[in-house]
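From the pipeline queue, job 12 of 40. The input is one protein chain; the requested action is below.

Action: predict structure.
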Amino acid sequence: MTLLLDGLVEALRLLLTGDGEVWSILLFSVTVSATATLLALVVGVPVGATLALARFPGRSVAVTAVNAGMGLPPVVVGLVVSIVLWRSGPLGGLEALYTPAALVIAQALIASPIVTGITLAAVQSVPAAFRLQLAALGASRVQMLAVVIREARLPMLAAVMAGFGAVISEVGASLMVGGNIKGQTRTLTTAMVLETGKGNFETALALAALLLLVVFAVNWALTWLQQARAR
């Protein structure tokens, strides 16, 4: 219990004293995870909506793959991205491994199935009669898709919360593709692993407290937006 209290005190001290390294790690983590979540939304929302509305051969396999991808182990993503970005890999010429870009790619791959799956469920929750009414009014496929997504926007905010929460708290893939390089690819989670390995439990707990604070703040803001729109 004393160790936990010391960690909380250390977290407050780091925040109030404006520790430069901690703030840079915090801002870097939020920036990378927010960018990855945005990319996941760009990919996942249209794919999820299409899977929910369209009917084509192999759709059940695609839906099953999305649902399975929601539980995809991050270390598997990290391994695949590492192989692809390795010097002898297909994209080794980009020299992107152990860079922020590699972190964004890995985190986007982790978040995309989550966003896609939740979007699929949200769009499917829109009554079929509503879609039929839109078709009867002469709405095109693009117009119908836009209206249905707008109707499902409240539950889809859960996709943002789930996607962001999954990637900002991820550690395995970040270590594999980022390397935990100080000042370049170190995130809150990888910094926690480093400090724990060094025996600096107070600092590790302080970083954990900051991580929880960020997750809570983002989810509080999105939940407020969700409930405000619902009202």
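Job complete. The chain has a mean pLDDT of 84.
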